[in-house]
Amino acid sequence: MWRSGGLRWGAEGPRLVWEGHGRERASPLVYGSGIGFRVVPEGERTCVGARGNACPVRARVPARGAQARCAECARLDRAHSVAADTIADDPRVYRVYLAWFGPGMVKVGITVEQRGPARLMEQGAVAFSWLGRGPLMAARRTEELLRTALGVPDRIPYAEKRAVRARLPGREERGAEVREVHGKAVALAGWPDSLERLECEVVDHFAVFGLAGLGDLVGVVSELAAGGVVAGRLVAAAGPDLHLAGEGGDVIVLDTRLMAGWSVTGAEPGTGMTVPVRAVPAEPDTEQEGLF
Questions:
Q1: SS3 46
Q2: Among the residues of the chain, which ranges form H helices?
Q3: Do the Cβ atoms of 13 and 208 come closer than 8 Å?
């Protein structure tokens, strides 16, 4: 039995990480190949702990939550995160980025420079460009500047990202919004002196995510359950999402964050889905208001 460590992105592409028997292993994901796993019968979803430490009470956590941590471990994890603004003296270099997920969906964010574009792939950014680099607090102030001056959000719900992945425009249009917002951002007054402006160079993840020819989404796995099976042919992956096609070609998304905290075993790719799946509209409304 192995416990899911989630989906990880890197230069080698997407991998599913598994923890167990005192070690960790990774399963590279190949588009077009079959994947499958079964949640251990009679099992339950337990807290994954925080900051490399196991949950001291192995608390049970809800099956539908994207974060498999109990309240105490979640508090500990956030207390040491960049998002909590509790490490203002962090000496590392940070980068501010603009990420594009679909028409009208551009967000601003920051990531530590040494991680490169991994954070963008983890979020499912189809296109992005760096905007600036410098100390953490300067990056934070620049992020806030874009939110207040340009109305660029720092979060976009995953449901909205998924709804448009099968209907994305061409590469030039994907980069056009990023270039437009980048130009407006670097022209703003009020940038911190310690943050270096970076030229706009759009990076496109369309091929990396395997989105060419992606069919419309018909369902989303709502939760895993003891004894449940997830199986299918992998057609695309973006952020934490795996797009799996069944025997009839229907595409169902598994948010791999739902796997955290469960113990699983292997299953044949042709087994199909026996976990709860939430239906989505056959033709989702993809109209998005422009940012400006």
A1: strand
A2: 71-79, 118-123, 136-150, 158-164, 171-186
A3: yes
Token pair of 12 as six digits: 């080698």
CB neighbours of residue 172 within 10 Å: 10
CB 244 within 8 A of CB 251: yes
Question: Phi/psi at 179 (nearest 5 deg)?
Answer: -65, -35
* Spatial distance between the Cα atoms of 67 and 48, rounded to a whole number of angstroms: 9
CB 274 within 8 A of CB 229: yes
Other beta carbons less than 10 A from residue 139's beta carbon: 27
How far apart are the C-alpha atoms of 232 and 33, rounded to whole Å?
A: 8
Q: What are the residues whose beta carbons fall under 8 Å from the beta carbon of 211, sequence distance 6 or more? A: 126, 165, 166, 168, 236, 238
**If you count them, how many residues does the chain have?**
292
**Tokens 């679909």 found at:** 102
**Hey, is 3 helix, strand or coil?**
strand
Tokens of 171: 């590469």
Q: Which of 217, 220, 262, 254 shows the shortest CA–CA distance to 237?
A: 254
pLDDT per residue of the chain (292 residues) written in tens, 0 to 9: 788 888 999 888 899 988 877 788 898 999 999 999 999 998 899 999 988 788 999 999 999 988 899 999 999 988 767 655 556 678 899 999 999 999 999 999 999 999 999 999 999 999 999 999 999 999 999 999 999 999 999 999 999 999 999 999 999 999 999 999 999 999 999 999 999 999 999 999 999 999 998 988 999 999 999 999 999 999 999 999 999 998 888 999 999 999 999 999 888 877 889 999 999 876 544 444 555 4
d(CA 35, CA 57): 32
| Antiparallel, parallel or unpaired: β 251-255 and 217-221 | parallel
- The owner of tokens 């889905």 is 273
**Main-chain phi, psi angles of 256, to 5 degrees:** -65, -10
